[in-house]
Amino acid sequence: MNAHRPDSPDPLRRAALLAAGGLIVTPLAAAAAALTPRQSAGPFYPNLPLLDDDNDLTRVPGTDAVANGVISDLYGQVLDENGQPVTRARVEIWQCDANGRYRHSRDPRDAAPDPAFQGLGKTSTDASGRYRFRTIRPVPYPGRTPHIHAAVFREGADPFVTQIYVAGEPQNADDFLVRRIPVELRPLVMAQFKGDPTAGPLQAEFDFVLDSILAG
């Protein structure tokens, strides 16, 4: 699954979210504030054998089974703070399956893992900095609100790691990692999962905005 969405609006629209929240910023401060906040990679980056690691996490080779959960398309751009695309960057996502299990040997949950869910996916940005994944809408597990871990790798720069949350999810308010992000910056790690799951995959847009050092 390699199709991309249309071009994304200017990333400084993200800074407008801050102004809408009552935070007054100068243009330079707005650009800095629009940078995607970093977050922890967490303890469960997959370490069990993966049957596949492409950008479709909902299917694995050798079976017609589809992963449990609400199928969703996650897409966006990797941009620098000036709105320029970051090309040929590797983007990875990883998350628990619909049963709340990561593909990790030390995951403490008792639920059986979903054999049709990859657990981790990889892709590279195109000439416009765009990326796309097919995955599932993230689910909660004890102690955490629904989230997707994400990393951007660019030659000559340290990996950029963050977490993507579901906008409007009630559990966000009590999640300890969400609460570490200043309130006015939290919209920058939220994605709206839109659509009717009976009519096709949900659609979720998320742009990574990196500073020029990280963007390479």
Write a short abstract of this structure:
The protein has 216 residues and is mainly beta. The chain has helices at residues 13-20, 27-33, 212-215, and strands spanning 71-80, 90-94, 120-124, 130-136, 147-153, 160-166, 190-191, 193-194, 202-205, 208-210.
Describe it:
It is a single chain. With 216 residues, the protein is mainly beta. The protein has a single domain (13-210), classed as Aromatic compound dioxygenase (Protocatechuate 3,4-Dioxygenase, subunit A). It contains three helices and ten strands; from the N terminus they run ααββββββββββα. The chain has helices spanning 13-20, 27-33, 212-215; strands at 71-80, 90-94, 120-124, 130-136, 147-153, 160-166, 190-191, 193-194, 202-205, 208-210. Strands 1, 4, 8, 9 and 10 form a five-stranded mixed β-sheet that branches. Strands 3-2-5-6-7 form a five-stranded mixed β-sheet, with no helix packed on it.
Please describe the structure with a list of short key phrases separated by commas or semicolons:
Protocatechuate 3,4-Dioxygenase, subunit A; 10 strands; disordered N terminus; 216 residues; five-stranded mixed sheet; single chain; mainly beta
How are the SSEs ordered, and which strands pair?
Layout (H helix, E strand, L loop, with lengths): L12 H8 L6 H7 L37 E10 L9 E5 L25 E5 L5 E7 L10 E7 L6 E7 L23 E2 L1 E2 L7 E4 L2 E3 L1 H4 L1
Parallel strand pairs: 1-9, 1-10, 6-7
Antiparallel strand pairs: 1-4, 2-3, 2-5, 5-6, 8-9
